[in-house]
Amino acid sequence: MKVxxxxxxxxxxxxxxxxxxxxxxxxxxxxVLALTDHDTLEGLDEARQAADALGMRLINGVELSCTxxxxxxxxxxxxxxxEAPALRQxxxxxxxxxxxxxxxxxxxxxxxxxxxxxxxxxxxxxxxGDSGNAPARPHFAEFLVRAGxxxxxxxxFRKWLGSGKLGDVKQHWPSLEEALATLRSAGAWxxxxxxxxxxxxxxxxxxxxxxxxxxGGHALEVVNGLQPAEQVGGLAILAREFGMLASVGSDFHxxxxxxxxxxxxxxxxxxxxxxxxFDHARATTA
Length: 286
Ligand code: MN
Ligand code: MN
Ligand code: MN
What we know:
- The protein is an alpha/beta fold.
- It has 2 domains: about 5-90 and about 175-280, TIM Barrel (Alpha-Beta Barrel), CATH 3.20.20; about 105-160, no CATH class.
- The protein is built from 9 helices and 8 strands.
- It has helices spanning about 20-25, 45-55, 85-110, 115-130, 135-145, 155-160, 175-185, 200-215, 230-240; strands at about 5, 30-35, 55-60, 60-70, 70-80, 190, 220-225, 245-250.
- Strand 4 and strand 5 form a beta hairpin.
- Helix 4 crosses helix 5 (about 135-145).
- The longest helix has 27 residues, at about 85-110.
- Bound molecules: manganese (II) ion (MN) (3 copies).
- One manganese (II) ion binds near residues 8, 13, 38 and 253.
């Protein structure tokens, strides 16, 4: 069974509309797909219609940002009740937070002689697909290129948008515990996204996993796209040690980049796949 439990559409920072993501995954032989846009459920209805028309299985998904140990962490929620009030409220708060952040980036760039950034980033975003969500940093980067302030995205991030730069506006994310409580109240299965991507020592990564489990997490994303095989091995060891389920996904954002739908390193065969649990409704907890 070919599954992909991690990908993005124009509802967040991907470049294909939700229905296009579904169609592309189907063409590539994916049988179970979860669309996991950042901090939004906006693409799920369109994706569901497209999946139903193709007779393909779509799992409700979301990638939530939260904080732990001074870092921003991503957690993946699956197979939840998308109308759950606590989840809807948390998504609404995040949505507003992202708009406030975009407005702050706009003010800061204007103060440095780069006016019109929000409008420009919004135009970039609208060119990709209609979304009511705030533009994200890649959209601002593209605006800076088009306006001639930088040569390319790399320079945009290096000078203005990257970590610690003027456009790196800290958003007030929920804590790891809060994010997991929200997902659990909606009956979600929860996986810790790309645990190797955080700039942590081995012992800090183990502490994160322990806290994630204590907060009610179920799985580790053992395979994220084409990450190096040694990392998959390291995460498999962690999953075994902590007795966790395993999830896999491409983290697809755009065609032609370094990731593709349904493409990721193999999952070690002894690990229990998270997606086999999706048929069994999780008891919701308060
Ligand atoms: Mn992304
Ligand atoms: Mn992520
Ligand atoms: Mn992602």
